[in-house]
Design goal:
single chain, Oxidoreductase-like domain-containing protein, Oxidoreductase-like_N, mainly alpha, elongated
């Protein structure tokens, strides 16, 4: 069984410097984790429906 991922929370307002020079930005990390979570949710949904 695959470990269920918790839905990530967006970074707090003061987590991002807003300078655009950080690599990776906290928002990059958030969106990557959110993508993983959404993919897992879609897989679970398709398993339940079949």
């Amino acid at each position: 069984m695959t470990k269920l991922l918790e839905k990530p929370y967006p970074p707090a307002d003061d987590d991002c410097c807003g300078g655009g020079s950080c690599c990776p930005c906290v928002w990059d990390h958030y969106y990557a984790e959110l993508q993983k979570w959404r993919i897992q949710q879609d897989e679970i949904k398709s398993q339940v429906e079949s």
